[in-house]
Amino acid sequence: MFHSERCDYCGECLASCHYLPFGCEDGGKAIAQLAAGEHAEWINDCVTCMACNEYCTKKARPFDLILGKMEEKGDFIDEELVLEMKDRFTPKTGPKPVEINGPVISLCVMTGNAPWAFHGQLFENVTILKGLPYFCNVLFAHMGNETIMRERLQSMVDNLAASGAKEIVFVHEDCYAVLTDIAAEYNIELPFRPIHLFEYLRDYLKEHPDRISKLNLRVAYQRPCASRHTPREIENVLYEVFDLIGVERVVRQYDGVNAICCGVEVAGPNKKLFPRGKNFEPFRDKNVKDAKNSGAEAMVYLCPLCFQTLSGKAHALEMKNYMVTDLCRLALGEKLPEDKPE
Known about the structure:
Elements: H1 12-15, H2 24-35, H3 51-55, H4 62-73, H5 79-88, E1 104-108, E2 127-130, H6 146-161, E3 167-170, H7 173-185, E4 193-196, H8 197-207, E5 217-222, H9 232-245, E6 247-249, H10 270-273, H11 281-293, E7 298-301, H12 304-316, E8 320-323, H13 324-331
Parallel strand pairs: 1-2, 1-3, 3-4, 5-6, 5-7, 7-8
Helix pairs in contact: 8-9
């Protein structure tokens, strides 16, 4: 929800954008015109990375304004594609009953995108929730449709609550972000406490220090888009995880608030989004080259789609590619499966 009462139309949100050619003055005017209901062709060039919400120090949520106008305009992405994806991600059944055994972890639908990443001792003796009943639908925000995400959020919360868990660990950044930030905008209350995967990994490592062998590895971390809605302290937890396993996160230009979106094209909507004229290859190239030039030996990901999108470029620059869980498994003495992509 855009909070017009908080916005001073300074334009810093658009001036900070990697993808739109605004300065502060014309950016402020553009947001003011959009808020006033004026037509704005430039929103079709938005890549829906959500960064402007994080750039805004007043917490006015300018991306929410842009998203609402995208849906109102109705031509950001082909309507048939939106309907196709809506049907694809509609649960055909409700959640299956589960018997809680240890921590409860929601995998959302991420197992299909990174099947190797959620195995080993980290995921032993846990209760797994996975599948469409637990899907967060943030995907539709990337398709210029806020309504589908909003209308399905309460069902997602109810399905998660049906597990009976009082705390649930989320491996998908989108799920965590929608529950800890976006749900409050819709006045949806949670009957459980969301736990970020980083918190779970940190606590597991602290409980098993005798199993850890330091990796002595320098890495660059690729932030997912939804991290723009995740509290800053969560990323500090990642530093704790890295410290426990002997990993150094290199200092580089395109990191933290200044991170570059991976520009995923393996997901359904983006196959027709970026051909609007937004060539994402230069952004991917400078992102990965920045990591290499900063001394990273590997790219590290939380989002499986970021992995799929950038791993080939990183590999070409002789960097390895790991999910965060991969690094933890290596530090715990496990071998990663041979079918893990390079």
